[in-house]
Amino acid sequence: xxxxxxxxxxxxxxxxxxxxxxxxxxxxxxxxxxxxxxxxxxxxxxxxxxxxxxxxxxxxxxxxxxxxxxxxxxxxxxxxxxxxxxxxxxxxxxxxxxxxxxxxxxxxxxxxxxxxxxxxxxxxxxxxxxxxxxxxxxxxxxxxxxxxxxxxxxxxxxxxxxxxxxxxxxxxxxxxxxxxxxxxxxxxxxxxxxxxxxxxxxxxxxxxxxxxxxxxxxxxxxxxxxxxxxxxxxxxxxxxxxxxxxxxxxxxxxxxxxxxxxxxxxxxx
Amino acid sequence: xxxxxxxxxxxxxxxxxxxxxxxxxxxxxxxxxxxxxxxxxxxxxxxxxxxxxxxxxxxxxxxxxxxxxxxxxxxxxxxxxxxxxxxxxxxxxxxxxxxxxxxxxxxxxxxxxxxxxxxxxxxxxxxxxxxxxxxxxxxxxxxxxxxxxxxxxxxxxxxxxxxxxxxxxxxxxxxxxxxxxxxxxxxxxxxxxxxxxxxxxxxxxxxxxxxxxxxxxxxxxxxxxxxxxxxxxxxxxxxxxxxxxxxxxxxxxxxxxxxx
Amino acid sequence: xxxxxxxxxxxxxxxxxxxxxxxxxxxxxxxxxxxxxxxxxxxxxxxxxxxxxxxxxxxxxxxxxxxxxxxxxxxxxxxxxxxxxxxxxxxxxxxxxxxxxxxxxxxxxxxxxxxxxxxxxxxxxxxxxxxxxxxxxxxxxxxxxxxxxxxxxxxxxxxxxxxxxxxxxxxxxxxxxxxxxxxxxxxxxxxxxxxxxxxxxxxxxxxxxxxxxxxxxxxxxxxxxxxxxxxxxxxxxxxxxxxxxxxxxxxxxxxxxxxxxxxxxxxxxxxxxxxxxxxxxxxxxxxxxxxxxxxxxxxxxxxxxxxxxxxxxxxxxxxxxxxxxxx
Lengths: 269, 260, 327
Description:
The structure holds three protein chains of three kinds.
Chain A: H1 3-26, H2 30-52, H3 66-100, H4 103-107, H5 113-119, H6 127-143, H7 150-176, H8 187-194, H9 207-216, H10 219-230, H11 236-266
Chain B: H1 3-18, H2 21-29, H3 33-43, H4 45-49, H5 54-71, H6 75-85, H7 88-92, H8 98-127, H9 137-163, H10 171-185, H11 197-204, H12 213-220, H13 226-258
Helix pairs in contact in B: 1-8, 2-8, 3-5, 5-8, 5-12, 6-9, 9-10, 9-12, 9-13
Chain C: E1 4-17, H1 21-30, E2 33-47, E3 52-56, H2 63-71, E4 78-83, H3 93-96, E5 99-103, H4 115-125, H5 130-144, H6 159-171, E6 177-181, H7 189-206, E7 209-213, H8 217-223, E8 226-231, E9 234-240, H9 241-248, E10 252-258, E11 272-277, E12 280-285, H10 290-300, E13 303-309, H11 313-323
Parallel strand pairs in C: 3-7, 3-8, 5-6, 6-7
Antiparallel strand pairs in C: 1-2, 1-4, 8-9, 10-12, 10-13, 11-12
Helix pairs in contact in C: 4-6, 5-6
């Protein structure tokens, strides 16, 4: 075995302990969970209804059919659930740590600070969305005639993972800026609001917005590309770009974090 | 409450909000949803079959954005925070109804938001010059009045939910629930003319269309039943005001029974 | 007519119970269990205008609950309370204008603005005209030794300065009754002393009635000629602090440094043994037998050093609460 394997094991065990206590403390709030379920059901129903408005008889949205667009909606719901469960509770705490000075405690722990801050807790509030999102994707993809062959499934999962990584990196970088600018902590809220564009396939937008959502705010990679993968028509160009963007954004988030820490620890008091 | 207290509260809150203008600017920016929806609607095949003209859509969604910015309420969050921090007790011991404080804070925040909203609107007009049109002055005044009434409606609704904090620790979760019908029935994501008639009727049975759609159409110069709209708004206000005050009174009684 | 009248006051809470562990979490999620806690029971006392009274007791004894019932923040479960002719929990305007509440480490001032702005708001709320409020601010600022701090944002002030500014804001409308809940909590020794001297000064100058809770004994000894001891929700003692000290401490504390450890000595022959660590022994001895016992100790044992003192009042009261009743 090796030091690396036992390190991974330690991290996995830590993760389990983090999320076990998180679950216990979250379940104190019965009403909260019930409300999340109802909110999710209402949201999905409303979104589906809204989407249906674009599909009069024989009409398409940016060249996508109704069932195909539902796949995109399903992926958006899935990602939103992951954001609610993992990203918001953790990355939202970064600014609190900076404000209250408790970031120091995190830095002094014998565990990687980015890992700690990113996985410290988890909220079951996003689980209904994740489950329903997956269900919607599966159902709509079957209706749309997508293939469930091993290759397209593998591609789909890979693209989804890439989406999560890209979303995480974007969010993390914005949250990290609170080390310098505590007063703009809600920049992650702007991100979340802008991500609503991911409910619709990127081809539904006019040309200017389309390039914006591909290059500046990669919403295209977040929902449209995985949807195409699941529908079995992902072009290798997009798949490769997606993986590249994911890798680069993760690397960037790491480097950015190191830069932020250097600045934080060299500042006095 | 009197004129002097109002003046002092407003000016103090404005000074306070100015300290947070960076954050407020970002909040204004996070209201981009109408613009995203405009992007989708402007290219949609369905738009023309529903009788929605591109330029009119642009005006509507911009108006929707502006109206949203000046009618939103965040009482629940401020109230919950104050209750948690123990600030509620001192407020209750001063001879001023605490809701006045929150109202002053909201109005001050809107004043602070104004330049940023204007900047965003100006940017929109730069990118879409053909949508620019100056509405007739009476229309503008009616739109202003409708916006203020919409704010009052939203504020009272949210204050009523905030009062529920006295009973449950997570009243803000209920606010989230109410956000859903608001999102889909207020006209923020699509002009209600795009909805099938059954849905439109359902929407008009709720106060939500009067929070965005009605003032926005007034501002954008779209088709809207003016008198009926104002009548409905007044009706909702007459319902919500006593409800809110009653909830507050019972809520405080419970708060003091449970041990402040 | 007494300013404050409390008769058989009681307060009971319902709290939810949860068992530890994951199984307990799920059970608690499904069905909650409650139990009743009596925070205050059968408390009765009266306070005259102009008195400075301290509420003393261990944490969770019920003193803050009692204070909140007096100020109107908590509705009593039983009994009656009357302050300045009003029933506090009704929080009528006339009542609110005569009282003020200050809580240690809790902020009323607006964080990002200078205290003067918060003072303007309070002046408007209590209906003080500009001239009058300016005069009072000047007067109180002088008593509190506050100057340019009033023009700096509250977040830039030290904890001590913040507390003084809080007091200023709370007293601007010159209330007849002051409720203070742990006012010196978290302050450094100097700041504590200054707050105490201000409160004493304020009471002398304006004749306000001061009701104060604290677990810093120094606050009580410095300010309160009269104390109410509250333990487990019940009123243990209501009277002069000096009388309490005498009653509780009919003994002196003696500390002995021995030349070598002597574990075999029958200490009870000399007095009550408080502690015995290696060569340091602490004894409690009756005052009337003090000289005789000291002589015997010096005679019988190899004493290197000896110190006689009064036991600190905190210790006395702590012992009292542990024993559970006043003799």
